[in-house]
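Suppose a classmate hands you a notebook page containing two proteins, each written out with its sequence and a corresponding row of structure tokens. How would you begin to make sense of it? This section walks through that situation. The first entry is reproduced here exactly as it would appear on such a page.
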Amino acid sequence: MFTGIVEETGILHKITNINSGEKEFTIKCKNILVPKIKLGDSISVDGACLTVTDFNKSSFKTLSSLETLSKTSLGLKNVGSKLNLERALKANSRFGGHIVSGHVDSVAKIILLKKSGESNEYWFEINKRFANYIIEKGSICIDGISLTINQVKKNQFSVNIIPHTNNVTNSNLWKKNQKVNIEFDQVAKYIEKMMMK
């Protein structure tokens, strides 16, 4: 379980292709995250829950399965990519964002970006089958960042990124037509399933 409050950004230092088609990522961090992790920990990497398989004083390794590569944008990342990182939530931690599982539902495409006062406004397009999960002022997790949806137009929606978020995440590198990881609100998905019975 995560909150969508990014702890720090890391750099994708190395990609090792496994014979099975899976990829092992070596991610370099600052001094915030690595001293606090241990083998087997769950880490949200751009919103995808991955397991720490090895680590040292400056980096950690994790394996991205075929399922993860097929459902997320991680397979599109290159060495040098900046990644949003968050450790799993402790039971006694303050809850700053919203309930995030780290199980990416889909990828979205950035279709528009513009300035909005001191913030940046981004518009995203998702697959039409997920349109029921986006509501104005609802929560959404984009590349591991807990955000509030501002406007909705069919299968498109907008969010505003404030300067602080731009400074502590990789959102300041987002570009038009880029693919980002999306996790919709868990509550909406459970309600939909119950209503279908």
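The notebook's second entry, a different protein, reads as follows.
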Amino acid sequence: MPKLIDTLGNLVDNAWLQLPKDATLDHVVQSSSKLVLVPCKLWLAEKASLLATGKTFGVWFDSDEPVGPINADLALLPLLALNFPTFMDGRSYSKACVLRQQMKYEGEIRAIGDVLRDQLFYLKRCGFSSFDLKDSVKLEDAQKALKDFTTNYQATVEEPVPLYRRRA
């Protein structure tokens, strides 16, 4: 089973089957997996049919897709994944902050796609709770990235009070 890194830096099994962007309802029905990560477009088009399968669903978003349309469904979704098509595309950082701070999502937010070791510390600060890294990244080395720094100066999703207020 493939591995990923959780917010504590542990290597854990990735039990979720992630369907491709062009997946259809037939892909879900034919899948033997009980935990299925579907593209947002499929979720929005086939939500009732997907739920009727009895499987547990998560939704993944490409960097150009807004997260707002699933606001009413957040309680149904234990996992949301935000794609980084390239490591230079930072839109998913903002989406994680929106999900945590504005939409009050408390489930797992996973970084997927072109995710590199050097991003993990900052992804965690924005509210990501698991990291599915590129195959070329050594997971054992990447685990250390979550502890690259001991404190933040700025307010973050993890620590909403900036350092100068914490020291006062």
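A careful reader of the second entry would note: The first strand starts at residue 3 and ends at 6.
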